[in-house]
Specification:
Helix content: over 70%
Strand content: under 5%
Shape: globular
Mean pLDDT: 81
Radius of gyration: 17 Å
Distance between the termini: 33 Å
Largest sheet: none
Low-confidence stretches: none
Oligomer: single chain
Structural class: mainly alpha
Number of helices: 13
């Protein structure tokens, strides 16, 4: 534990708990954004590598809570339906995670933040961008892109959410599908960063501790999700997605 407290102070840990609670609440309501909020908020006062380690286990636990909310059968059906997306994302996440210490993140943040922000703005202005039926090629491309950015930054939600929104996915199914996709990705992220050295004995306690406020936030957000209809859910999703895109642009432009 001495090694752990050499990385973060008690006061900073308390702030991290508050950020994890907020991240869990947002995720419980719209199904994503926990890694984005955690890594963005934590990186303001701790090392980015520790922030990345911190989000791994809360992301893993909350995603499987989300995936299994309607039972294992429904989760398996979603896994089967989006298997190409998951496979492509897994491969590219494992590859890109090994470059986390050497590849500049700014280019990746700009590459994903720009298209996501444009997509959301067009949706909010009423310009229809929909996919009546996904093709295998499109599914593999979006999955690969999500995995690529996820391995580098720990944030792979925005392209996934944009894809599911374009498909017009019903809110309960979208929450479940996101949980399955992110849950599989979270397993891959954990093992990838054990290999990269980001997740190690000194950083593991931080990730374990953040599970508690993240799960509490999920419970609060889940109650909010059950009270909103499909239209409000889509608007809330687009707003959070817009914030995600703008945040990625901000991080990409920071020198």
């Amino acid at each position: 534990m001495d090694a752990f407290f050499s990385l973060i102070s008690a006061s900073d840990l308390a702030i991290a708990f508050g950020i994890a609670l907020l991240a869990g609440t947002v995720k419980g309501m719209v199904g994503f954004a926990l890694p984005m909020i955690l890594v963005s908020g934590l990186s303001l006062f701790i090392a980015p590598e520790l922030a990345l380690a911190g989000l791994i286990l809360p992301t893993l636990v909350t995603n499987w809570m989300q995936a299994l909310r309607q039972g294992g059968g429904a989760a398996f059906a979603s896994l089967k339906r989006f298997r190409l997306f998951l496979l492509a994302g897994l491969v590219f996440l494992l590859l890109s995670a090994q470059m986390v210490r050497v590849l500049p993140q700014q280019v990746m943040f700009l590459a994903i933040g720009g298209p996501v922000t444009l997509f959301v703005l067009l949706q909010l202005m009423g310009v229809p961008l929909t996919l009546a039926k996904p093709t295998p090629r499109v599914e593999v491309m979006v999955g690969a892109f999500a995995g690529l950015i996820g391995g580098i930054s720990g944030v792979w939600g925005p392209p996934t959410v944009a894809y599911l929104t374009a498909l017009g996915t019903e809110k309960s199914e979208q929450i479940r599908v996101q949980g399955v996709i992110y849950g599989m990705g979270a397993f891959a992220l954990l093992f990838a960063h054990i290999g990269s050295g980001v997740m190690r004995p000194a950083t593991l306690p931080f990730s374990i501790l953040l599970i508690v406020p993240a799960v509490l936030g999920m419970w609060i957000g889940g109650m909010l999700h059950d009270r909103i209809d499909q239209r409000v859910f889509k608007q809330a999703t687009l707003i959070v997605l817009l914030l995600a895109g703008l945040n990625l642009l901000r991080r990409g432009l920071m020198l």
